[in-house]
Amino acid sequence: MIEFDGVGHRFGERVVLAEVHLALSEQRVAFVGANGSGKSTLARMINGLVLPTEGRVRVDGLDPVAQGRAVRRRVGFVFTNPDSQIVMPTAGEDVAFSLRRSGLGRADRARRAAEVLAEHGLAGYADHPAHQLSGGQKQLLALCGMLALDPDVLVCDEPTTLLDLRNKRRFAEVLTRLRQQVVLVTHDLDLLDDFDRVVVLDEGRVVADDEPRAAVQYYRKLVE
User: The pTM is what?
Assistant: First the structure.
């Protein structure tokens, strides 16, 4: 359960979010809205990347402000640009690097990394140079780095923005198979048909919260 209780965020005098009240228990939830609507800020509060200036956030009862380390063990985060997350020379080393505090030995980390890569569409790529992967493969690699840690929640902040249509669909298909609760920030409305819930933000406020068809219809009218 992810809870936002009267959450707001200000940057100087600018109001980024105001009076957000949400309780998210569904398996797959999406945040949509125009640029500057506050959706990414709201998503980043889930693991404490951004802290509220008003109200409180809870992830399974934990406060990202006071219990940030415990929250980050539960919440994985995938950014728009995978290059911001890929830090090691090869795909296998990059996933293994995310396991460096797991207590596993080097061989076990390498084996676990290969298993996660194979499970999510990158079988045989453990020794491939990470930054020579295609854009879609890089995004899968960034995802694998998070999934190796087996979080309970996965937040993806516009992960398909830099991908072509084929890779957008491939990434979306991977998300459908995950056991984790997924919170997706996106402009790709055609990816939301089988989501459980879509939250629409506008100028820092929740203006619609519904099943995908109704929420997307509301958003289309809003931007038109």
Answer: 0.88
